[in-house]
Structures are given as C-alpha cells and as structure tokens.
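Trying the structure run again after the queue cleared.
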Amino acid sequence: MLIASILFFFKACSKDDDSVSGSNINPPSTSANIILPLGASRVAGARPEYESYRYELWKLLVDSGLDFDFVGTETDNASYPDFNGLSFDRDHEGRGGITSSGILAELDIWLNDLGSIPDIVLFSSPGGNDGIDAYQQTLVNINAIIDLLQQRNPNIIIYLELPAPPMSSEQTPEFLDFYNQALMDIALIAEQQSTPTSNVLTIDMATGFTDAFLADDVHYNEAGAMFISKRYFEALNTILQ
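Done. Tokens:
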C-alpha cells in the first residue's frame, strides 16, 4: 500500500501523541462490525493542536444507527463531548511517528492484545513516516501488513487511504513526483492484495482536500477531520451489517 514517498512530509507526524497504551484493555467485542483504525498521528490526533478523523466518524456512525465497535490498544486522553447520550469510543491503533516497519513489527502483538480480530481496518496514510530512500521497503512492509491481517481474518476488509496531501507550500516538484507515484502504488497494491473473501479497497482522501483542512503542514483541523470522516462513512455505510 503506500507511500513512502509521502513520508517525506509526514515526518512532521513524529511528535508523540497523548495516547495511553496497554495490554488487553478491551474485552472481546460483541459487535458485528469490529473496526481497527490503524496508522500514525493522523489516526491518534493530539487535541487541541490537531484532530483525528475518529471522533467525527464515530458521530456519523452513531447517528446512522449502525452496529460497530472501534478497537485498538491505544486510547487518547483528549476531551470529547458526548453524542446522542454516548461517550466517544476512543480505542485505536494510531501512534505518532510510527513507520511501516514499526507497525509491521508490532501488529501481531497488538492483534493478540485486542481481544477481538477486526472485521474492518482503516489504514491511514500507509508508510507516511518512512524515508524516501526506503520506498521499496515500505511497499514490502505494506504488503506484509495486509498479509498478516488477512491471515488473522481471511474475510477482513481493508481500506487503504489515498492520503490527503500536506500544505501546498510543502508540495515541491520533487514531492509531487513521489506523491503521485505513491497514489498509483497504493491502488495497485489494493488490486493485487484483494482475494475472493478479503477486499482491499482504496479511499480517495486527496481529491478535494485543501489547505483549509490543515491545522499545520500535515495534520487535520476540525474541518479536515470532518472531510476525512465523511469519506470513510460513505464507504462504510455501504458494507456495515
């Protein structure tokens, strides 16, 4: 899946987030739709500095009446208002600054600690914190991450982001060459890794994304979080049981 090319600007995501990690923090889920948000700081968020899409997506899913459960070994300490009488489901697997190698090295442990194997994975900006020189290894890592998820659940649905770009001031000609190549590589990986029982799908977060959606060079503000969450919701609304 991804975008070692993008890494070059996503290195800005290396700041530690305010998540709290732990083992077996979730009992086995009884939901028909167990969703794992996976990635780096765009998943974790760091209120009030910048937002994750997770809260806005959670509200859309709650409002729809669909049955779902976010899972992960991370929970963040930020303040989120209740919605429809419910408290925000803070579970996720986002870590600021993590690389594709880091995700691959830890994913098996995280899945063991979840208590439940996910039905759906939302893989945000895959490879975004890798180095440009490691691009080919990033592609290998992304494929290996998908392989591991499919081994754990042969029927899993994996969404790969065609990631939203950074601030336009960061979009040099060199960056755009890498970024556009990464978008094509993500789409190719999704096609090649799909099986008769496990769909690997892309979600276009790039088209229509503007500087007005960013809190800094790379991270979402509230409007950006809403933009990303709506794209996810449009996809999930067609498949959730």
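Strands lie at 19-21, 34-39, 69-70, 74-76, 91-94, 120-123, 157-162, 200-204. Worth checking whether this holds up in the mutant runs.
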